[in-house]
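pls ignore typos typing on phone
zinc ion + seq
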Amino acid sequence: MIRQQRCTGGIWICCGGAKGIIDPGPGSLAHVCAAVPSLSPEELDFVLLTHKHIDHSGDANVMIECMTGGGFKKNGLIIAPSDALSGDDHVIMRYSQERAARIERPHNGKIIKITPNLTAEAVLHLHGTSECYGYIFRTPGLPEWGMISDSRMLPSFTERYRNCSFVSVNTTFPDRKKRLDHISVAEAKELLTGLNAKHAVFTHLCSTMTAPEGKHFLENLSTENTHVTPAEDGMIVDLATYEVSYGGEKPYIQTPAR
Ligand SMILES: [Zn+2]
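k done
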């Protein structure tokens, strides 16, 4: 995040009649405005934070401002853990919360109805002292899919994500770091052997893995049953076919004509 070797704009989802942004970190709005094919921040229906850390929440208030028409219309849904919404150090401002039409605080197993055609089931994670949840999304006509956010690897994940045909996994380090609550590539590959996912994306990759000299860490990730793609900025996954394509960006800093 600090050097923006990879963007921290989060994941834009378009599914079940809703458009949402998950974990809008620093730069989210700039990347959404620059995205090709284009995305419209004012069309957002929900803003979801898996947890409140700054790389996941830096632009959360900004994206809520977009969702609520610059703060002028009460609109949209905020899904965020309690410690992101209240307490000593909450990251979603009261100002933003008052403008959303609905706020949902997840707990383990809670199924949140985003639209009549899209639900998100919260899966409790373990990530330092911050409250963190992954999700399983369900839409009629689409296979279910899940996202695993920042967490220590938990035995419950095998059971909870078992029916997902697609999973996105925050895979931070090549190997397990005992004292850090992040999933490693080694652990993620092991998890996949217990799931039924046809396709997985490993994202939230540390700079060691994304540096040119770290290329080998992101090779041969697929397992016997699961095709694994390492995430890239602008990557697009079709949730019906799991086809991966790559979008682009138009320059978003407009140089004034002289
Ligand atoms: Zn985190």
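The first strand starts at residue 11 and ends at 15. The longest helix spans residues 185-193. more later
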